[in-house]
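Predict the 3D structure for this chain.
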Amino acid sequence: MQPKPEHFGPSYADAFKDHQVVDSYRYRPAYPQEVFDILASLLTDKPVAMLDVGTGSGDIARHCVEFVDRVDAVDCSLAMLEKGKHLSNGDHPRLNWIAGKVEEVALTPPYALITAGSSIHWTEWSLAFPRFRAMLTANGILTVIHRKIQPMPWDADLKNLRTQFSARRNLRSSHVLQELEMRGLFDRQGEKETASVPFIQSIDDFIEGLHSRSDFSKQRMGPQKVMEFDRQVRALLSPYHQDGILPLQIVGTVTWGIPKEGAL
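Done. Predicted structure below.
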């Protein structure tokens, strides 16, 4: 099987063990409520158990306890899990926090739903996807969930800055679902995008949210590069703020399908 893109490698995933990244993660936009309505509608099997892959601080798992009987939330970052335990629903009795790699940890299948919120690219695909396949119920599905800011007038300039300052080398655009389908690891069955919802954020908080990403972690960038990146982003965004805040719109996308063994 063709190896996955280098910038999805474990060295970049390790950034989420950094406490500075963990602290910055709360500045990412929340998933629209409609994301969870879609997930609930996709549950058709029993037991109504769910596995959340790369759960981080549980932005998906902590909401799903409202409509499932059990959520197993797995992440290799202890710092992320500890943060999640202190957030809303973090101590819910139907939520099980599990530290380790999803390819290796002990789990309690079957699951009617496996979710991955902007995290599926960090797994070891050749090991994870056959395991997902084996752990699903007869009609169970894997969902990949993304949240994004709707197009804004500064997007092109910000993309140029991000390319200039990224801590990743040989960065190229990769659409993870297309990469998975090309390797015979995912059979896409449906996709739905939510309506956009307003998200109000200050420029400083927006910048801090950028540092929650592996290629812009402060530790990887170094203090001088962080200072200059923040300065240039702030200068770029300043003309667009209204009373000190940015008027953003957020959408979520849920893509679902069947994990496969992969092409030889």
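The longest strand covers residues 245-259.
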